[in-house]
Design brief:
Strand content: 25-35%
Largest sheet: 6 strands, mixed
Helix content: 10-25%
CATH superfamily: Endonuclease/exonuclease/phosphatase
Order of helices and strands: HEHEEEEEHEHHEHEHEEEE
Strand order of the largest sheet: 4-5-6-7-11-8
Shape: globular
CATH class: Alpha Beta
């Protein structure tokens, strides 16, 4: 049994496919029991997201409706009966923080988009947010603060805006004090073996869904990427 089969998720959200739509479709063609949706960046070999769902959504939308932000294939929104699920790959600010200002604009635009969706029904947001929200979410907070992409005050403020505007970080909601729980490790210096990592992948949910939230977890034993899978279990009403 593959790791994919072992997870047996109802919905899979994949970020940073680094492939065009036809390449993703070809690669995942052997997965028959899921509906596949994919979007890619104008620039080949960059960014991209995909979603696999056992249940066919009512509607699929790509992007957040702002052309400047929709050239990199970073979001897929699927509408189901009780909620929307948004698969997102948030821009990285870059090794020299050259995209930090753009990242700030992106975070605001994404939040505005999510709040518009929420007017109709609750929202689940899954993805690589490229930020460690709190000191507990990375192994070396002091060394990285305001120096490394993913742990600047601007990026932290961006995540604050989500959590202060009705979206719950499911993992911290259930496990507020759990330490050394990471979802990404550098390939350098044996970081994963030493568990010198960052928690930069999140499931956020509309506050109203917390009563249906049963678990939020990190599958750190699953290999194959510098990230590991994360997941939630939501009960249907």
């Amino acid at each position: 049994m593959t790791q994919f089969e072992a997870m047996n998720a109802d919905i899979f959200c994949i970020q940073e496919t680094k492939a065009q739509n036809d390449q993703v479709t070809e690669t995942l063609a052997g997965i028959k029991e899921y509906h596949l949706y994919t979007t890619s960046a104008t620039r080949k070999g960059y960014s991209g997201t995909a979603m696999l769902s056992k249940t066919e959504p009512f509607h699929i939308a790509y992007g957040i409706g702002i052309d400047e932000h929709d050239q990199e294939g970073r979001t897929i929104t699927a509408e189901f009966g009780q909620f929307y699920i948004v698969n997102v790959y948030v821009p990285n600010s870059g090794s020299e923080l050259l995209r930090l200002n753009y990242r700030q604009q992106w975070d605001k635009a994404l939040l505005d988009y999510l709040k518009q969706l929420e007017k109709k029904k609750p929202v689940i947001i899954c993805g690589d947010f490229n930020v460690a929200h709190q000191a507990i979410d990375l192994a070396h907070p002091k060394e990285n603060y305001n120096k490394a992409a993913g742990y600047t005050q601007i990026e932290i403020d961006g995540m604050d805006h989500f959590t202060q505007n009705g979206f719950i970080d499911t993992f911290r909601y259930l496990y507020p004090n759990k330490e050394k729980a990471y979802s990404w490790w550098s390939y350098r210096a044996g970081a994963r073996i030493k568990n010198v990592g960052w928690r930069i992948d999140y499931f956020l949910i509309s506050t109203v869904l917390t009563k249906q939230l049963k678990d939020s977890f990190i599958l750190s034993d699953f290999m194959g990427s510098d990230h590991c899978p994360i997941g939630i279990i939501i009960d249907e009403e």
